[in-house]
Amino acid sequence: MSVDAAELEELLKIYYSRLFPYSPYIKWLSYNNNEYLSKREFCFTLNGDIYLRYKSFSNVDEFKKELKTVNPFKIDVGAIYNVKPKDHKSFKSGSFAAVEREVVFDIDMTDYDEVRYCCSDAKICSDCWVFMKIAVRIIDEALKHDFGFKNLLWVYSGRRGVHCWIADESARKLTNNGRGAIADYLSLVIGGDQQAKKVTIPGIPHPSIKRSVNIISRYFEELMIDSQDFLGTPEKCQKVLSMFPAKTIQDDLQSWATSHQDSKTKWNKLKDAWSTFAKKRKLKNENNAIYEVVLQLCYPRLDVNVTKGLNHLLKSPFSVHPKTGRVCVPFLAQSVDNFDPFSVPTLKETIAEVDNWSGDSTVLDYAKTSLKPSIDLFKKFVRSCERENTEENKENSMSW
Question: What is the pTM of this model?
Fold first, then answer.
């Protein structure tokens, strides 16, 4: 899908005038503190890939006026700085610094190209979208249960991936090292294109690894066997064999690799062959090798630099993807199985819904469209952030 730039420009004018959720959006990014907002960086990308960095605003009215005037094709959100970003040129080099921002994650389908066979590059389909379902479930569980974060906003990127924003105050105040520690903890698939084996589990698997394997197991047959046919050719089989520990069962399974059996039969035989091999040699933690293969095939691929960098920009919720025209809408992690990226409304469809509305004329424009559930979900998220801020302020006022 490709959107005509001239048409998108006209549609965006309507979107920014009538549909963009300004009030909850600014409440979120300011955490109800206009001074905080005034030090937040925004970046606008205009038609023709013209970038306007270090934009900052004092209140929602300023932001709304600028958005309607500039009419950006894309909105990126950055960090909170020690001074207003729009004034950064007035300060000496080194004195302008990012001090706070949400911890963010960027998961892109192109990073799965080595293990998906249905699509490649920017293309996605309902088959490979299951990789994103797995990623959301694994990362969401880890962030909530292993780190105790509560205010997570999951957002569809508008094309081929998902983003996660952690808005808890404890997350926003983390240093680059703290963010890096979280990213490293959640990174299991490590290695470049030339490295065959990219996951190694030393010793007894950590509970988070077992939890991830359990999540993947719910989707594995649908994704890897039925959709990707991951053992469907000798080349695919060799790739999977190379994920096992070196000098173990590879040589014994050459006939298995070239057989004409289906992927499900081959997978079961492979697991049996490994179990027999491990038992004969009395290997400890014999399931680790199977876990490693499953994780290398399906575990989330994170852009760790996005997470580690305090001043890294990330596409904003409710921005519009300029290639697809789809709105970057929030969704619930626990309902990710029901989230269909292909049913996310395009700007053209959304504006047509407003124009074709025949109900109560007093209804707000956004409520006339299929964006309503996403905006209502976003409002609920913002209220949760506000509650945390209120509770935090109460605790601070009671401290000695």
Answer: 0.94
